[in-house]
Every structure is written in structure tokens, then in C-alpha cells.
Amino acid sequence: MPYIAKHLSDFTQKEIAAIIRKSSRAYKSPGIDILMVPALKDFGRVIVITPRKVGNAPERNRIRRRIKALFYEHRLYEYLFDTCIIIKKPGIKYTVSELIPLIEAAFKKHANRRS
User: Fold this and answer.
1) How many Cβ atoms from other residues are within 10 Å of residue 11's Cβ?
2) pLDDT digits (tens, 9 = 90+) for 36-90
3) How far apart, in whole angstroms, are the C-alpha atoms of residue 79 and residue 115?
4) Predicted structure pTM score
């Protein structure tokens, strides 16, 4: 397994706090918020926050796995943003086909805004 795949969501508590504090919102909807900040490493990373009120543990873990897989498969780590994705109650029901355009559009929009 490549180095990036293993470290795609490795963050310290300080890094998470800094991402949330310094980030700008790239996308907002009733089901999902996407926050981005320039990457601290030489590749982008993702953290998925799913509060307990969103659903039970298997549901929360399923959405986390989906988003991390999309992040890796679509090579979104190449955009060089550390990303915080916050899932809300309606967002737990998103399918992979619904998540792909949301996340890719947020990355492209945010990358264009930064350049």
C-alpha cells in the first residue's frame, strides 16, 4: 500500500484544531460541510467528522470509509488541501454517486479561488 494511502487521514489533535480554526468553507449544504486549508504536508489529507446524533456506529463508519475511498480513488490529495468534511443527519444517506460530484466540485471551486 502506498505511503499516501496509509497516511491519508493521519492528524494530530493540534492539526485538527488548526484546520477547523483556520479553514475556509468550500461547500455547505444541509447534509455536508467541507472546510479546507492549505496542506501542511506534501499531499492533501482528509478528516471526516460524524457526530453521534447522525446515526449509529456502522452508519457513521460507512460514510467515513466512502469519503476516504473517494478521496484516494479520485486523487483529491493532489489538490494539496487538508480537508475537514463534517457530516450532518441528512448527509448520512448520501450514496457514492451523490458524493462524487459534491466533493470534486468543492475541490475544484476552492482550488480556482486560491489560484
Assistant:
1) 17
2) 999 988 999 999 999 999 989 999 999 999 999 999 999 989 888 999 999 999 9
3) 11
4) 0.89
Neighbours of 10 (CB within 10 A): 10
Could you give the C-alpha distances from 84 to 2, 29, 35, 101, in angstroms and in order?
A: 22, 14, 5, 17
CA atoms of 69 and 91, how far apart (whole Å): 17
Q: Which residue shows C-alpha cell 479553514?
A: 23
What are the structural domains, with CATH classification, of the chain? 3-114 (3.30.230.10)
Task: Kindly give the pairing relationship between strand 81-87 and strand 46-49.
Answer: parallel
Q: Which three cell numbers stand for residue 70?
A: 473517494
The answer to whether residue 12 scores a pLDDT higher than 80 is: yes
List, in sequence order, the alpha helices (H) in the chain: 3-6, 13-22, 57-73, 96-114
* Alpha-carbon span 29 to 91, nearest angstrom: 9
